[in-house]
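Retro notes - structure team

What went well: the batch runner handled both jobs without manual restarts.
What didn't: labels got mixed up in the shared folder, which is why I'm recording both outputs here explicitly, each with its sequence directly above its tokens.

Job 1
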Amino acid sequence: MERIHDWDRWIGTDEAGKGDYFGPLVVAGVCVDAECRDELLEMGITDGKKVSNSRVYKLAECLWKHYDHNIVVEEKMPNTYNTQYDLLKQRGENSSRMLADLHIKVIETLAKRKKVKHALVDKFPYSGDITQLLTRQDIKIVLETNAERDVAVAAASIIARERFLTGIETLSNRYEFQLPRGASHVVDAGKDFIKLNGEKSLRNVAKLHFGTTQSVLSS
């Protein structure tokens, strides 16, 4: 089986916001070659979930400044996310299908732009769909658990995290209400948000299929 260390350049993808009640779902992809691999390692690129938010912003700024052509981002803000989720549910699918579609779009775009034939993706439900579709397009996919150990996936995790943080802050500013991150301890924030903005506005800031919504809407 062809392995990552045999590749001279490849795409790594990762997501952010999947487990957060508020804010967007983001998938980012970064293309890495032998030359920039060492530069990214020297920058201290690591899994974006394991460093502070301030560090995420700093590393992302550096990545965008020097490697913007190597980066692709796809995101679903909550309103669009909820609309698409409703359509998926009608087909018996769920948010993992949406996540797979975003990974596929990111990889397809970067593969065409950078003429790359290899990609590394962290395993998740429906990730097999990525392999099935993209292999037919002559893009070789490796699915691994804890793929953030790879520098391309780690760089993608930094970009995805930065875009998620920016997205949730944009929504917080729009509604003049600080939306918390995560999925636990957010019920009170959801109730307070509704008091200020109305129940209909919740779909613009939150992923409504989360069980949290039931608690938020209960009296």
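Job 2
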Amino acid sequence: MLELKNVCFEIESEKGKIKIINDISLTLDDGKFVVITGPNGSGKSTLAKLIMGIEKPTSGQILLDGTDITNMSINERANLGIGYAFQQPPRFKGMTVRALLSLAHGSELPEHECCTYLTNVGLCSKDYLNREVDTGLSGGEVKRIEIATLMARELKLAIYDEPEAGIDLWSFAMLVDSFKAISKNKHESVIIISHQERIMKLADEIVILENGKIKKQGAQEELFSAILSELQNECDFGRDKEE
């Protein structure tokens, strides 16, 4: 179980301190599939990075299964079973896709398993296994490969930061199917930062952030219709102004 207790994160600016995350408390039970959404600049990606340890909170606590991980490094959190897929993944010149998948898994993966992970993210596996994860791959290809590396790991918590970004519609459909399988199996907790309706529909819970705070949180069945209603109202308001 993941617990955030009164977590804050602030940065220094010319105008003084700015709170990016403002007193967020959140509990994620084991096996839950949670989508965090909200407008741009609401703090979604920052919250994900705080959980992974890429950023450290200014105040508050982060616990995993009762253990305080607030001051733990990224490596320590990874060893505890937390994985993170960046919105813009790094590249690794000289490392093949197959080697990266095996490294993520923790041991040499047989070819058929590598192929399965790549197929699940919409890549023709045999075209990619021996390619290097470098500038020869597009941003969308690297993104899908990174998502595959998380799927190859044994995780307690997988965090995906806008997994649909830079991915074509056909491949996105493959990703949705993969996330459905994760949701069905419930073998790990999943946090996805996303605006996509199809991904939000898969969630057990939806958390809506605004100005660094939790605006709403609840079951997908309760919040999804409310989100669509808000979007519809915004569209109707825009039409009224035009008319």
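One thing worth noting from job 2: The CA atoms of residues 218 and 231 lie 18 Å apart.
We'll revisit the folder naming next retro.
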